Every structure is written in C-alpha cells, then in structure tokens.
C-alpha cells in the first residue's frame, strides 16, 4: 500500500494545502459544503474569509502543524526510544534472577520504630478485620492501607512510593520519562520472580511484549472485517483453537477480552438474554456457585443489571468440589418457591485450592432444570494441554460457555481473557452492533462474524499478537511442557512436605498446594508464614477453606523450577525448627 500518496486516496481528497506562500490555491473540493463559495484572500494577514462568517488563519494553521508533527517520529527516533526502553526492561528482568529482588520484599531491619521479628514462642501475629497480614513485615490491610505486596507498598503512601511524573503543558526527554517509569519496578510485586507463589501470578514473555508493540504500532481496528480482515482472522484463529482444546464444535464463537471477569460477564449476558429475556423476572432468577467460586462471578450480576437476583453458594465436599447433591436440593427448593434457576457456574481450577468441580454431574442437573452451565477455567483451563490433566476437563465440552485466561496459562500480559460460547449464534444475538449513520457506506457481509458483534467492547486493543506470537514462535509443545512442569513441581512439593514433621498438607489437583501446622492457632500458622517469607526470597499468602486457615503455595511462574522449590522446602523445614514446636506425629491428610 502506498502510504505517501494520500492525495490519490478517496478519504484524503480534502487535504490539499499550500500554506507556505501568500497565495491560496482554490480547490472546489478542498472544503465540503457550505464552505465552497466566496473566498477572499488577505495576503498581509494571511486570512481567508469563507462565506461571510468563517475566518481561516494560515499562519495559525502552520504553527499547529509544526507542533503536531512532533508526533511523527523518525526511524532514528524510534530506534533510540526502543533502545533506551529495552535497557530499562533488562534492568528490571535482572531483578527476577536475584534471590532477593530489591523492591519486591526488603529483608526487615530491627531499626527504631520497627517491630522486631517474631521469635520462637512469641506468636503475636494478630488477625482481624483491620489486621490481615500478607507478608513478613506485619503490614496490615485496612481501608487506607491496601497492600499490593509484602514490602509495605500501600494504596496511600508506602516507604518507596513516589508521585508519577506529572502531565505538563510541555514535554520532557525520553530519558526522564523512562527514568520515572522504571520506578514502578520498586513499587510492585515481582510477578515473574520464581519465588512469587501467591495469588495466581502473572507472567509475560518477550514475544508477547513484542506482540503488544506491533499491535500498538500498526494499530488496526481489529473488531471489524471491513477495517482489517487479517486482524480479525488472527483473533478468530485463537478463539477456534482454544475451542478445539475444550472439545467445542466449530459453531462456537468467542472473543479475546480484558480478563476473566469480562469474559465471564459476556458469557453471563448471553445466558441472561437466552434464559431470562424479561427484566421483570430478574428478581426471581437464581445463580448457583460453589463456596470456592471466584468472587468476580457474582460481581458481574451488578454490571448486568441483575443486582436483585438470588445467589446460592453451594458447599464443597471433602475434595473441595461443588457438592452436586446439595446443588440439586437448592434448585428443587427454589423451584417450589416459584424462583427461576437460570445459571450454574462450575470451576475447573478454583483459585483457593485448584480443585475441579464435577462438570458432567453438574451438566446433568443443569439440563434437567433448563439452566445455562458456565465453566470458569480462568486459572486451570490451559492445563487441558497436559495429557496428565485432560481427564479433569471431562464434560467441559458440554458447557454452554467457558471463560479462560491466556494471561495465566499462556503467559500473556495482564489484560488477556477469552470467552467461548458453544452456540455462537446466541453470543452474536446478545451483542450485534447496529451501526450509526456515519458507517452507512462501509461494505459489510452478513456472513462475516465481526468481533464487535461478539462482545460489548468496541475500539478494543488488538490483543491477538500478544497471544499468537509466542505460540507461533515457541510452539504449543513448549507451553505444554511448562505447564506440565508446574503440575509435577506441585506433586514434588506435596510429597516432600508430606514427610515433614508438624506439617499437614493437602494433595494438589493442579499446581496449588495448601499446608499448615495442625492443632495450633491461626496465629501460629501466620507466624510460620512470616518465618518462611521474612528474608524476601519467597512470597506466599494464606487462605481459609471450609473454616480452616492454610498457607497457600501456587507454582505457576514459568521461571519457577525444581531448585527453587527445593529452596522453599528448606525454608519451611528451617521455619518449623525455629518455632520449637513440641514433638508430635506428623499428619499429611488434607
């Protein structure tokens, strides 16, 4: 495509200019009606009066153009900016190779004004609504002290927090901008560090970053075939590939989203429109979750305008799976009370435990009561690539919709979710865009399934390259091996802790391992957490499942390998020894 000869393009026929001289070149097509008559030039002031009202100042336009052209970078400028940006990236990534990355967790110091470390026998770690701890420095969470990591970075002002470079009338140098941005590395969790074993850590690969750079540089409108067919095809290829992983038919449809919650919301919107088409029935509609379902699912109800809907939290069994017998009883009771069961959510990989709900049994109940079945596979979904885990996803192919996060299992940057709906027509019916008059000349084909008709989003970021480039470059086998390694490491950690005195450990299903000291207070287990994490080598948290507090480890970062797990195991052993617990027989039952 010739991007220099704009005057030959229909869209650019109004862009003829000659403002470097005192003479104005009159072109009847240069200005749309009504400004095509009665031109008067004033060479001294360089003003043009169109009709009798509009005054056009050529000098002013020239100054504006000179300023606006600042945005048009040269190849040399782009190379310089990229080189300097890469230096900052390399400096950050070097931190991920250190045992104790600065800015993630700073080893505590016994200085004035700071509490000393908890010594053996001094279990003073408190729990309560305003004293929930997430790391080794006794950092508390409360309304004004929300943590993002264990090194006292708070939502108000932390010890390392600085104000970002302000938005100013005039710009500054790229060096100053990058120097300011790089400070973010000292005020964040080191998500990609091999010792980050909390929450569900995010990871990103170099090809994914390059994919984002390419997407932002080419900047296609990727939600409509008429705007960029190839961009649409790239997204559709990813969606169909993921659909095949779960056994969906080719008639499925979906979209890349900003994350799992938005993917779930798109799916729930489709479920609402199909199962509860009348808003007057929202208040009697019932959503069924397990007690371990991610909180983002219920959150979607408010966004969907179904705040008054009923939410039933179904207890889990001794394997931390939704208890289908109790689910059935809940539904039967609701039907008898003239309520409308419309949606049940099964999870393949709960965030707390990594457990997998019995999808086939839940599907049978959903079918019996004409309910929509949605599967939350955001954390665990891409383990379907692993042969050893495929059996865990039995029945997912019958679900009406699925949400899965490439920014978890495919190591894409944060902000990459994916929604799938088995019957793509239902998804399209819930989201089809009715174009405004300004798009009436756009050529359309009813057979084209545009992404903008499969989600509520418009003008979304072109997310496909961040997923596609790593898959194309490394191949699916590399991701399969990386995920399988995490499953094996979780088993390895379980078996090593299983034989450790004073430790009770829960057998993992995926890559999450729960353990605790049984028979002691929650404060004692929190003290164990502090002892393990106090030097900043590892970041783990606690969770409470069925009323029991556990230390929770998730092995998910692609940089985490056996040597890291070995170091962690030794940390646990040393921490238990330091706590000088009485001799007891160990217990490993979950």
TrEMBL record:
Gene Ontology MF terms in the entry: carboxy-lyase activity; pyridoxal phosphate binding
Any Pfam family the entry gives: Pyridoxal_deC
Annotated keywords: Decarboxylase, Lyase, Pyridoxal phosphate
A biological process term (GO) from this entry: carboxylic acid metabolic process
Residue segments, region Disordered: 122-170
Biased composition (Polar residues): 122-155
Transmembrane region(s): none
Coiled coil residues, start to end: none
List of residues that carry N6-(pyridoxal phosphate)lysine: 408
InterPro entries referenced in this protein's UniProt entry, alphabetically: Aromatic_deC, PyrdxlP-dep_de-COase, PyrdxlP-dep_Trfase, PyrdxlP-dep_Trfase_major, PyrdxlP-dep_Trfase_small
Cofactor: pyridoxal 5'-phosphate
Gene Ontology cellular component annotations, sorted alphabetically: cytoplasm
Family according to the record: Belongs to the group II decarboxylase family.
Record-given protein name: HDC protein
Protein encoded by which gene: HDC
